[in-house]
Amino acid sequence: MNLRAVLKMHVVVDGIIFQKDPHGGIARVYRELLPRMCEQSPDLSITLITDGPLRAALPQHPQIQKKALPPIRRTLRPKGALRLALYPFRRVAGRLWNVVRQGWVGSGDGAIWHSTFYTTPARWRGAQVVLVHDMIQERFTQFFNDPMDEVGRDQKRRCIQSATVIACNSETTRQEMENYYGKLKQPQHVIYLAHSETFRRLSADSFSTLDQIHEPFLLYVGSRVHYKNFALLLQAYAGWEQRERVRLLVIGKPWQPEEHRRLEDLRIAGRVQQIENVDDELLCQLYNRAVALVYPSLAEGFGIPLLEAMACGCPLVASRIPSTLEVAGDLAFYFEPDDATQLCAALDACLAQGKDPARLAAAERRAAQFSWERSAGAMLAVYQEAQALQQRVILL
Q1: What's the confidence (pLDDT) of residue 283?
Q2: 3-state secondary structure of 240
Q3: Contact in structure between 333 and 350 (CB atoms under 8 Å)
Q4: Which of 66, 163, 340, 371 could form a disulfide with 236 if both were Cys (CB 3.0 to 4.6 A apart)?
Q5: Nearest of 393, 387, 391, 395 to residue 113 by alpha carbon
Q6: DSSP 207-223
Q7: How many angstroms separate the CA atoms of 262 and 265, rounded?
Q8: Which of 297, 280, 302 is CA-nearest to residue 23?
Q9: What is the pLDDT of residues 171-199, one digit of tens each?
Q10: Four-residue CA torsion sign, 204, 210, 212, 216
Q11: Statement: residue 86 has pLDDT above 80
């Protein structure tokens, strides 16, 4: 037997996540992981398939081949009123999509399938790997109650249950996965995520001028959808005694009309500032200069902004949820996620103690323990395990 042939590994990656969200964290995860995995293993080759317009940049490496398929998914998944009208036929459409696309994807003999967002190929004869990001849609069905959300949850369940090996981005995610799906027979591994090297401590003399941003400020980064608990942050900030001295800076999409009304009702519109299209270099500056990053989520799978902030010497004020405890340990100022009064108390404690040098140094050391190189090596080991298990099945 040719040992070199055994060591070679071909992975087909469904790049669906790069078609879904231009600013999403999951796309960033794969941009970080896939090229590093190729660097660590010259015998790894990746075919990255897409079947529609891209909304996020693809990972780049000579061992990653891009393959654009006809846009079948868009044809079979219409939007608007037609989408709702065809909802009863969603499963038939999904099976049709898989069958038609199979001709371009192949049978999977000797290969590994890895979807970036829970798709499963039809009649795949190779190994399958999944990286589970969170169980938020399963936990908060009251927030994800669109007719197609159920389809997405079913698709995710099938993807996880058919995987040869399962990876999760935290022990929190792994435990929640088993809470919803029961004990799974496949090998399971926790692969922690990391932060970009862009995020680091800056010296005061390297700060650039931040036009139209008033200091001091609290920092909020990311989406403001329901489970992110942004409404509680606004409620707490409106009642916080220090709000006239410390502003709230929000990084993310423009305000929605209802958010404008909420700010006016709470009488804090003049104290809360929103900016969008912030690149990593500017975000690094903001972390370095913020009083604290406020992270009030009801649930998360991991929490990359926590690492970014810690690497930049930015104190954390965070809801006490399992994933944040797993990432930040005892280095955040915690509050219960449903208690605005506790959030105000955590903000006060952070103002008094957050910039303690020993605390910031400990946070920086903790952030350094999370490495994309280490994550890539762990994911590569998952691929190797899946390949070995599949070969064992073939031999049997």
Answers
A1: 96
A2: coil
A3: yes
A4: 340
A5: 387
A6: PPP-TT--SSEEEEES-
A7: 5
A8: 280
A9: 999 999 999 999 999 999 999 999 999 99
A10: negative
A11: no
Does residue 147 contact residue 87 with C-beta atoms inside 8 Å? yes
What is residue 41's DSSP assignment? -
Q: Which residues contact 388 (CB under 8 A, 6 or more apart)?
A: none
pLDDT of residue 80: 60
Q: Is 318 helix (H, G, I), strand (E, B) or coil?
A: strand
Tokens 């995995």 belong to residue: 37
**Cα of 266 vs its chain's centroid, Å:** 31
Confirm if 39 and 2 have CB atoms less than 8 A apart: no
Instruction: Please give the DSSP secondary-structure letter assigned to residue 23.
Output: T
**Does CATH place domain 204-368 in 3.40.640.10?**
no
DSSP 8-state symbol, 252: S
Q: Does the bond joining 216 to the residue before it have cis omega, within 30 degrees of 0?
A: yes
Q: Do 180 and 153 touch, CB atoms closer than 8 A?
A: no
Which is it for strands 9-14 and 44-50: parallel, antiparallel or unpaired? parallel
HSE at residue 364, side-chain half, CA atoms within 13 A, is: 17
CATH 1.10.1760.20 fits 3-194+372-395, yes or no: no
pLDDT by residue (tens digit) across 295-313?
999 999 999 999 999 999 9
Give the burial string for 225-250 (b: 16+ CB within 10 Å, else e): eebbbbebbbbbbbebeebeebbbbb
3-194+372-395 matches 204-368 in fold: yes
pLDDT in tens, 115-151: 999 999 888 999 999 999 999 999 999 999 988 899 9
Distance CA 155, CA 169 (A): 19
pLDDT in tens, 311-362: 999 999 999 999 999 999 999 999 999 999 999 999 999 999 999 999 999 9
Looking up tokens 């000579």 gives 62
Q: Which residues contact 310 (CB under 8 A, 6 or more apart)?
A: 316, 328, 331, 363, 364, 366, 367
Q: Answer for the pair 9, 45: CB distance below 8 angstroms, yes or no.
A: yes
Domain ranges in the chain are 3-194+372-395, 204-368
Q: Which residues contact 333 (CB under 8 A, 6 or more apart)?
A: 292, 315, 316, 317, 318, 346, 347, 349, 350, 353, 354
